[in-house]
## 1
Amino acid sequence: MGNLEIYGLLLTAISAGWLLGKLGNRSNKQTGDGLGSIFHDYFVGLNYLLNDEPDEAIDTFIKALEINSETVETHLALGALLRRRGKVDKAIKVHQTLLARPGLEADMADAARIQLAQDYITGGLLDRAERLLKELMQENSVAKWEALQLLITIYQTEKEWESAVACTQELLSNARYKKDSDWNARAAHYCCEIAEQFIDKEENGKARDSIKRAFGFRRHSVRAAVLLARIEQRLGNFKAANREYLRIMQQNPAFVPQILKAMRKSFAAIDKLPDFKHSLSDHVSNHFDPVALNMLVQLITESDGSEAAIRFLRMKIASEPSVTAATQLLKLEAGLQEEAQATDLERIHQMLENMLKKRAGYQCNQCGYESKNLYWLCPSCHTWDSIEPNYKNGI
Ligand SMILES: [Zn+2]
């Protein structure tokens, strides 16, 4: 059991104690039926908790709270805590018991239903959660906007992108969320997901429409720009594709490794490789990008020969030393040496190359998840746009 959870439970216990104390004061003026037993259960629960026996502590607290009709908020706090600890069944029980209580005030009932929906989501009972949340939406309750956000999460998990876009659009119709950059970014990603499905089916017109919708939510969506470039290239509109690629290079240099291969092909298709080389050279002098550096060296070797590439690398290493540049240099030098020396250099080059291949190119800025590939949605913490290149200068 983590320290934070222990503190959470303690907080619940303290708030329950405070409420019980309040009740105790009140009951002194009245009679006090059953309060002795609540106090008893409460202190037994607290004792379990202090002895680090949380399961027994939780059961005892539930028992103590069920007797009392004025502890709705404590119920909600305890239910949420149980869910976070992975005890979804118990959380559902707490929230259902609460909802079954006669005379529960409407806003408290809505809060309990939101919590119950979250229990269902955590427990993977998405259909039940969806039904409950749709009910809340139809009743136009104050919890509607919270319900809408949970519904979007469900549609995202289920990959029901059209429903996800529709719900996000509704959320963004509320002035409170309209300018929220996270929700707008999410809507743009949902449109891009739809666009990717159309691209897979070769329905380029529909894909383009979805990309336009994505730009409507986020004008500088890099993912939408990458997809648009891909479609234009596929349709043979190389000039339009190249324009998009150059825009990505300018506005989102971190994503350049994602587009380089396709970009090279698109420029080559209309004999514009020198222009590509020029832009790539600018990019490499302004950003540490091992993938782009490797491609530039390859282009220089192809157009001007290995000696020109070696000269370029020597200059590059002098101004910005890096293992990537040194590895490339070794490879080119090996090609110019006598056999024995070449074999040595080639071996060292291979060792360095293998070492570089092992590095993770991307990392989530929220949870630290490392990956060789770019994900728009972190597979670990499910945050959009949190995965970034983590190439370190010098490597
Ligand atoms: Zn993450």
Note: Residues 14 and 235 are 66 Å apart (CA to CA).
## 2
Amino acid sequence: MDSNPKLRFFQCPCHPSEPVKRVLKQPAASKILYCVQCLMEADSGSTAFYVPVEVLVNEVYTSLVASKEVKIDAKPPESLLSILKEEESLMKKLADHIYDQKSKVNAQATKIERTLVEAIQKVKNEIISKLDSQLSALQANFAEFKKQLEKHFEYGKVSSIISSKQDIMRDLNSSLNFKELEKKVRNYLIEMEENERITNDITEVREMVVIDGIKHFKTKLQEITNQFPESILAKEELFSTQWTQLTQKLNDFVLHVGKIQNEIIPLRPLGIESSIISPANIEEIKNLVMPKERRLYLKLLGKLEKNASNYDEIGTLASTRKNIITIMKTHKGEVLGALRCPLQICKEKDIHAVSFNLTKNLKKEESKTQRFTDYYVLSNSIFITSKKMLKGNRSTHESIKTHTLALNPQDYPALCVIHLEDGTHSGPLDKSYYEKRIQGIEELEVFEVFTN
Ligand SMILES: [Zn+2]
């Protein structure tokens, strides 16, 4: 047996010619496999965590051997085995459920596709029909111009402009349908108005009115040659604005409906029951918030549901009890947290709360907590608020909604207001203020803190 097995060639998705070489030893990280190129582009810092795959295999093997030594010399008790009796029925039930879900997803997607396609085809046909009508509209304008010339000048056919009543009625009767009749009647009404304007004036003015009117008509006709009708779809600048807005809305929609609620995640017996942090993160949190000689154990007390149905319960838990760490994953993928603790746990005395940003390795220690009615206060620097409403603070909520932040309150179970970073809020008005301070919370977990 080869004592030093090698990993075969696996293509790096970012650098197709490069093989996967190293592993980032942080199971919760979004990217754990690295080629040499990736390694060079990676954030410097904890480079000790990037180990060659072969080294990792050695470490895994050693740890497997060690864990095998913890073997209980007995059969597992019935209380542990009973769940296995349900495996088959549970799998069957889930399979039925998944089948049902898939057919609903298919039906819904088909409906969306059809609605979108129909809407586009409808508007396309309307535009094309409007474009076609532009030809006859111009032709009608030319015909009207000639008619005006014939009526008021010695032009074209010998003027027999006064029709008989019979002529007018014959004209109306020649209409093919109601619509055409309506159009003709409307034209007679307009013509009557025009005639009225002319005949109301005294004789010398009448000619001027007629000439002005026809000159104006001619100018308008000429203008058409300068600017032909254009569809927004065919006009690059106008269209691109509309297109950007549409794709943004579409992206929001896709992001929102693309989620799966109550997703089944891989369970581990000894790992921390968290979908946000790993055991390695706990070590980092400990280093941030606790004296060196202490150890930190966390027990999950609750998670915020994706639909925020337990928001008040979790908010109360996180904001009123002591020995509590709240961990949040933001829409930017950053991990934020707040520890509320009695004096004897924290590093320095007189500290009641520590707020931190694990991703940026930032923290702020605070001696007292303020009170707000609008939020749950996890620390002086971190508040959480429901996605539905910043309680009693409608104007702030409206500000968030109307700002062009990549932050749609409806996408997150909760929002978090932070000010871990001090400094002046420069930039136009409220926008930079909110960008700095308000984050969408994708996940939130509350842990009880144990320490030695
Ligand atoms: Zn790469």
Note: Confidence is low (pLDDT under 50) at residues 423-432.
